[in-house]
Amino acid sequence: VVKQVNLTAVEVSWEGLVTNVECADNFVVKSWPASAPGDYILSPIIPIDTFKWIITSRISRMKFVYQVIAREEKGWNGVEYNKSPKTPFRTDDIKMVEHAVEDEISRVAEVTSINGKSLLIFTTGLLASVISLVAMFN
């Protein structure tokens, strides 16, 4: 699961998604620009009791692909890699506003329609104008 922290950072989480965690020795997170798979970066080795990693220094609004890799050390036989499905994700200004909505808005006071676009009016006045703008774009 990938979620936006801010315009240049994302959190990759695999908590509750790993089966047979006892077979892995550690994890790494691989990420790359969607348009350039060969330009991937690997996280440092992540301990087996950690199930999320924050990646910073992303280019805002650019689509990246994320993949978690469970590593099992096989001694002389090398390392076995078990890879998650690839998850494409792009940071976005609107996602930042949506996170603010989730964190601060408890209920909708009114739903109105302007030129066929839904306009939501929330009970928290400070964010109402920002949220209204976002709702008008949907």
Protein architecture, described:
This protein is α+β, with helices and mostly antiparallel strands. 18% of the residues lie in helices and 43% in strands. The protein has helices at residues 93-104, 125-137, and strands spanning 2-6, 9-13, 26-33, 41-42, 46-47, 52-55, 63-73, 79-83, 87-90, 108-114, 117-122. Strand 7 (63-73) and strand 8 form a beta hairpin. Helix 1 (93-104) crosses helix 2. Mean pLDDT is 77; it is low at 99-115 and 118-138.
Summarize the structure.
This protein is an alpha+beta fold.
Q: Helical percent range?
A: 10-25%
Taking all residues together, what is the mean pLDDT?
77
Sequence stretches where pLDDT stays below 50 over 5 or more residues: 99-115, 118-138
The separation of the N and C termini measures: 24 Å
How are the SSEs placed, and which strands pair?
Blueprint: E1 2-6, E2 9-13, E3 26-33, E4 41-42, E5 46-47, E6 52-55, E7 63-73, E8 79-83, E9 87-90, H1 93-104, E10 108-114, E11 117-122, H2 125-137
Antiparallel strand pairs: 1-2, 2-6, 3-4, 3-5, 3-7, 7-8, 7-9, 10-11
Helix pairs in contact: 1-2
